DNA sequence: TTAATTTTCCCCTTTTAAGGGGATATCCAA
DNA sequence: TTGGATATCCCCTTAAAAGGGGAAAATTAA
């Protein structure tokens, strides 16, 4: 019997998880935390088992909570369960010590299997997540702080001159940054660059 | 007893919905459709009741299915249930005949209440959706089909000449569309336009 | 069957971005 | 302390987008 702690702020998804885990005697639901505060409280009495961890939470991020859980030294495993398939989130979550990373379109069978595997210290990733992880090792696009700064201003519709004014640097410098952004991201022009930026989470869409 | 047809491709959410509706004798789940094809089949035998309709589906959109359902003339009500809070989706869904629009972070109580209300021909909207609807009456940005088509190609990084080739129209026409897009959306340039497009859901982010 | 919108096409000029280099301080990490 | 990346600045040319019009078919809606 594997104890499971669910961290999930969407009631519907939480309900779904409870439903698919409670049909079987294999799993014992320790509790449901709808935010970081609730999690920390419930984690106190959680001695061993598996945590199903949402990443975006009202008051904090699942990445922080995962670090918290791992740092406790308890024999627990964290499975990330989220809608977000961004490279940088996957990387941070795995760096934080998560053993598996599933997307929310996962089937009940996949989730149950991931929990079983976690008990045996084995990983499991959604197909799309695997692709992202493979790309992680190949070509890691690393944008510098300044480049990200410029990128965000481009996304706001500023021209190079306006960006230069805002950052107190020469227009030529902004020009360089922009060229490097296109080069590094493999984008053909500003439009494609911004699309990339939103996809990769450098620029946040209003709906994320 | 209200018959309910669920249209939802995320297994977890579907499971959650089944769970919160099956506890009560008030609702009778007619079926679960995970895509448009399945919906059309199951809709054949659905005489009256409420449809919980996801918008983004693997093979079609909930907007199309809603139109289909309304056109049938059967005494049914459609409730949109989705993660997307974009103005144009809300508008299209309501235009298609949906009575209510809920976000997926809705509570079980809210969902049950929305179904009851739908049976009495009354609407219900999530808080954030209400805000969007209020803004709708103010300034409604309506992009034409062709404009959206061009917009998506711009987001892919194509130049006007490439878009013209792809759509078998003159480069000058694409130029016009692009100008109108900037004008209608109030964007200063392509970068801002693409940001707007992702925000409003005209262009899908990889992570949505 | 009008009227309105959409789609298509065209003129013009100016501004901005993109593509091709290069160069020098600075800062960070091996 | 010595590379390597970063951030800054500069040259050049070409391509593309933006800004300002206008106008005729084709659809769509009233």
Explain this structure to me?
The structure is a homodimer of 208-residue chains. With 208 residues, chain A is of the alpha/beta class. Chain A is 52% helix and 14% strand. Chain A folds into 2 domains: 2-138, Response regulator (Rossmann fold), CATH 3.40.50.2300; 145-199, Arc Repressor Mutant, subunit A (Orthogonal Bundle). Chain A contains 10 helices and 5 strands, in the order E-H-E-H-E-H-E-H-E-H-H-H-H-H-H. In chain A, strands 2-1-3-4-5 form a 5-stranded parallel beta sheet, with helices on both faces. At the A-B interface, helix 1 and helix 10 of A face helix 1 and helix 10 of B. Chain A binds a DNA duplex (30 and 30 nucleotides) through helix 7 and helix 9.
What labels would you give this structure?
homodimer; 208 residues; Rossmann fold; 10 helices; 52% helix; 14% strand
């Amino acid at each position: 019997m594997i104890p499971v702690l669910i961290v999930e702020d969407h009631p519907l998804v939480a309900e779904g998880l409870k439903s698919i885990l409670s049909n079987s005697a294999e799993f014992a639901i320790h509790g449901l935390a709808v935010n970081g505060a609730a999690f920390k409280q419930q984690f106190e009495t959680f001695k061993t088992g598996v945590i199903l961890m949402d990443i975006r939470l009202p008051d904090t991020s699942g990445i922080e909570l995962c670090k918290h859980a791992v740092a406790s030294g308890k024999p627990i495993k964290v499975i990330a369960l989220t809608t977000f398939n961004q490279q940088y989130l996957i990387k941070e979550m795995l760096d934080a010590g998560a053993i598996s990373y599933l997307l929310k379109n996962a089937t009940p069978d996949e989730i149950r299997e991931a929990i079983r595997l976690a008990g045996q210290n084995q990983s499991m990733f959604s197909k799309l997540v695997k692709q992202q992880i493979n790309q992680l090792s190949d070509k890691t696009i690393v944008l510098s702080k300044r480049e990200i700064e410029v990128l965000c201003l481009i996304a706001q519709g500023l021209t190079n001159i306006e960006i230069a004014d805002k950052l107190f640097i020469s227009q030529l410098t902004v020009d360089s940054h922009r060229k490097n952004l296109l080069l590094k991201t493999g984008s053909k022009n500003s439009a494609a660059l911004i699309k990339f930026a939103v996809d990769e989470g450098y620029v946040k869409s209003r709906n994320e």
